[in-house]
């Protein structure tokens, strides 16, 4: 097969490309340039798209003896990832930009261009297992990335390859060293690549501006303070609330809900963070076949953690998800990924964006968007 290997400049994508080469495929490496001005991305090892990464990817391709190109996806990345991130926060939501990048860039824009150029598949360094169209968790639970891949459709998965899903990360680094890849000891990427300063609030504030509102007590509806925009908060946040001191009972306060329409930030005790149910947008099913009847499964609401058993009830406009045990820190804009327990590793069934939650008590008199299922 003709395979396009997406090479980020890290150890995972380099070893993934090496394995595809070793399997006898006709491989071409490509690095995605995601910023019109390179300095707007992270430098060094802290971001997954730093200026140095293109050079590291090129050197890895040279070692593997494969053609290598840099493709400019800056405009698409800005529209589908950066602008989406800013817009979601302006709505009071909590998005995952890495998940959106996988969905819109690596497995939509990149895969479409690869298909147009005659490639049969795109290989990446994600930790997940894929066989016969079935997406499963990786063998290494600490590195499993099936959550961020749960947004992919059956058509996208049909043209994807994840060569690292059956290997633990230490073994991947050891393999990179054996193959003479200089990235063998390169640190893993962290943080958001398009926020060079690491200050998310400052980044959002510069783009959204000042939208003042009130900080309100979840129990009494009393106004406790003010703020310059709901984009400066996330559900579950404990610090920087603009409120003097703890609650009357001496316990800390947390952000429990956000309402961008009224500009209301609701804060309360930890008990207000317990979420027992979710409502979502229309789901994406990795099998290509939509569920019609209620079913039991395991759900995950964050890239690492946020797991619970649940009953999912499909509907015409989305899913109703009844959690077997409460989850905390769940907010609209997050993605819920559905899993079916399996002897060969949990199978990804599909995913959907959370639109509202139940179990969080809104502030008195506030038009909170949290709702009952």
TrEMBL record:
Pfam assignment, any one: tRNA_Me_trans
Segments for region (Interaction with tRNA): 143-145
CDD domains hit by this protein: MnmA_TRMU-like
tRNA-specific 2-thiouridylase MnmA-like C-terminal domain ranges (all copies): 276-354
Main enzyme class: transferase
EC id: 2.8.1.13
tRNA-specific 2-thiouridylase MnmA-like central domain segment(s): 202-268
Active site, per annotation: 101 (nucleophile), 193 (cysteine persulfide intermediate)
Catalytic activity of the protein: S-sulfanyl-L-cysteinyl-[protein] + uridine(34) in tRNA + AH2 + ATP = 2-thiouridine(34) in tRNA + L-cysteinyl-[protein] + A + AMP + diphosphate + H(+)
Designated name of the protein: tRNA-specific 2-thiouridylase MnmA
Protein source organism: Rhodococcus antarcticus
Species classification: Bacteria, Bacillati, Actinomycetota, Actinomycetes, Mycobacteriales
């Amino acid at each position: 097969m003709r395979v396009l290997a997406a090479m980020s400049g890290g150890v995972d994508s380099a070893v993934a490309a090496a394995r595809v080469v070793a399997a006898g495929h006709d491989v071409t490496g490509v690095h995605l340039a995601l910023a019109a001005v390179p300095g707007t991305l992270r430098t060094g090892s802290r971001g997954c798209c730093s200026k140095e990464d293109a050079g590291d990817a090129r050197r890895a391709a040279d070692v593997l003896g494969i053609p290598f190109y840099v493709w400019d996806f800056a405009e698409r990345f800005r529209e589908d990832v950066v602008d989406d991130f800013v817009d979601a926060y302006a709505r009071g939501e909590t998005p995952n930009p890495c998940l959106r990048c996988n969905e819109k860039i690596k497995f939509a824009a990149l895969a479409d261009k690869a298909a147009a150029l005659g490639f049969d598949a795109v290989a990446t360094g994600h930790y997940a297992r894929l066989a016969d169209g079935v997406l499963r968790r990786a063998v290494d639970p600490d590195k499993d990335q099936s959550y961020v891949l749960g947004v992919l459709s059956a058509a996208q998965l049909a043209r994807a390859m994840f060569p690292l899903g059956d290997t633990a990360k230490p073994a991947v680094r050891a393999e990179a060293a054996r193959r003479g890849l200089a990235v063998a000891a390169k640190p893993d990427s962290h943080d958001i690549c398009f926020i060079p300063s690491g200050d998310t609030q400052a980044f959002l504030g510069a783009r959204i501006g000042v939208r003042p509102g009130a900080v309100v007590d979840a129990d009494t509806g009393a106004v406790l303070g003010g703020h310059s925009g709901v984009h400066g908060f996330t559900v579950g946040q404990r610090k920087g609330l603009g409120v003097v001191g703890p609650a009357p009972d001496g316990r800390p306060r947390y952000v429990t809900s956000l309402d961008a329409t009224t500009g209301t930030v609701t804060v309360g005790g930890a008990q207000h963070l317990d979420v027992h149910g979710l409502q979502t947008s229309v789901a994406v099913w990795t099998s290509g076949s939509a569920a019609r009847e209620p079913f039991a499964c395991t759900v995950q609401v964050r890239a690492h953690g946020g797991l619970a058993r649940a009953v999912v009830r499909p509907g015409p406009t989305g899913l109703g998800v009844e959690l077997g045990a409460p989850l905390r820190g769940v907010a609209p804009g997050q993605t819920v990924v559905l899993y079916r327990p399996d002897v060969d590793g949990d199978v990804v069934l599909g995913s959907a964006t959370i639109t509202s939650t139940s179990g969080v008590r809104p502030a008195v008199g506030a038009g909170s968007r949290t709702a009952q299922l």
